Structures are given as structure tokens and as C-alpha cells.
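Annex B.
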Amino acid sequence: MTNATVLKPCAELNEAIDYYWYHESQDLQQSTFNIPFLHQELVINLGGDFTMTPPGEEAYAYDRGGGVSGILSGPVVTRVSGHYKAIGILFKPFGLYRLFGLSAAMLHDGPLPGYRLWGPYTDQLIAQLEHEPLPAEKLKTLERFLLAQARPLPVPTAVTDVSNHTSLSRGHIRSLQQAEQVSPKKYIQQFQQVVGSTPKRYIQLQLINASLAQIAHNPDLPLTDVAYDNGFYDQAHFIRVFKSFAGITPLQYKKAVQAGRVQVSFPNAIHHT
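AraC family transcriptional regulator: predicted C-alpha cells.
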């Protein structure tokens, strides 16, 4: 059984971070199919083999220096082998920009090594994390490091408006763009710089994540109800958008839930042992 410790951020970092996590298991062999979720993430691997593989691409191996990934556009497979010992941060969709001024464009080609963010300070962080024996103290050490390294920038309202309003109705995104009093091209460029996707694609991912949670909580609910509850025009539209992110159909996901391979607490992951 994997031991997990979770810590919410302090008030100073609350606008950029959802939570910190630490997992450890002495001997873990696990493969997980991951559907994109609404976070940017830092992972520091302090244990055995830990890789992330997008479809058709080479595996990225997380190491002690850490790797920062943006919001994914498609599914990835993570594999853990041996002594699993990892610490990480789930950032809000715009968290890396808010905290470090990091453009999401830097994450398009895969995870960004921690050394690219913090340079030689990365080694100091790893040494401090290894020194602390208790998971909660490791997470507090990580937070103190972030407070010292932060170079905060304000998040454009173009981003926060879309984050707070989820609708696929015709003209919805255009109305947000007009409220910003910028051209459609400028609006999309600004959003992509901070979040890493277009506003429309981001809203679709929000609705897919809501659909995953609904199916995981109630796998007996008809998928047509899930589609309409989450604002899709019809079942065909729901299947098309779902598969574009997940690589599988809603029915395939539902069967994985019914087989006990999905945890309600994190419905984006389908576990294989």
C-alpha cells in the first residue's frame, strides 16, 4: 500500500498551488494510464524508476532534479518500479506563470527539468528534502523553498475568466474576449502563454474532467445523462471530445471504473498492476 501525505499551501502561495504531495512505498510495481487533468505538476523522484510516456513517444524518466509538466493534451502512461519515493506539487492551470513567470510554451515539448527553473539551488533543495525524516516536514521544506524562489506575476483576467466560466455555448468565448477589449488573436495568444492551450480546448478539458468525476462517483449513470449534464450537444459530441483527450471512449472508461481500476479520489488515473 502506498503511503500518501498531502499538504495545502500557505496563503502566500494559494493563488498558484492546489496542494503538495509525498508518496512512498518500499516495493511498488505499477503502470497507470493517465487522462489529462487541470493542473501543471512538479515531480521529484527520490526513489526507484519512475517514467512518463506519451503515446508514440519516448519515455521521460523523472530524476532527483525533478521535472515540471504542463497541462497535457492527451493521455500518458506512468510506470513505477522498485522503491517508490516521490514528492510533487499540483499547480493551478496558470500556477507556474503566477509563481515564476514561466510561459507554458516552455512545456510543450515535455517536462522541463527542475535545474532549468532553479539552477544550482535545485541540489540544495534535494539535500534538504533528503535530510528531513518525516513526510510533512519534507513538504514544509519544499514550501519554504518555493517562497524563497518565487518571482510572482499577476495572472491576466483573460485566464481567470475562462477558469471561472465553463460553457461550450456558441459565442461564449467570444464574449469573454470582447470583455477583455483585445483582438481574438491576442486573446488566444495570451491564454496559450499562461495556460498552454486555447480557451476552447481548456474549457473542453474542464468539462471532460467533470465527466470523469461524475462517472467515477456513479458508474451506473447512463452516459447520455453524463453528456447532457456537462454541456455537450449530444452523445456523439461527448464521445468525440472525450476520446480526443483520453484516447479511449467514455464507455471504455466506465468499464474501467466498474472493474475497480479507478479511485474516486483521483478519477483521471486508470490503474494496472
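The chain has a mean pLDDT of 90. The radius of gyration is 19 Å. Further annotation is deferred to the next reporting cycle.
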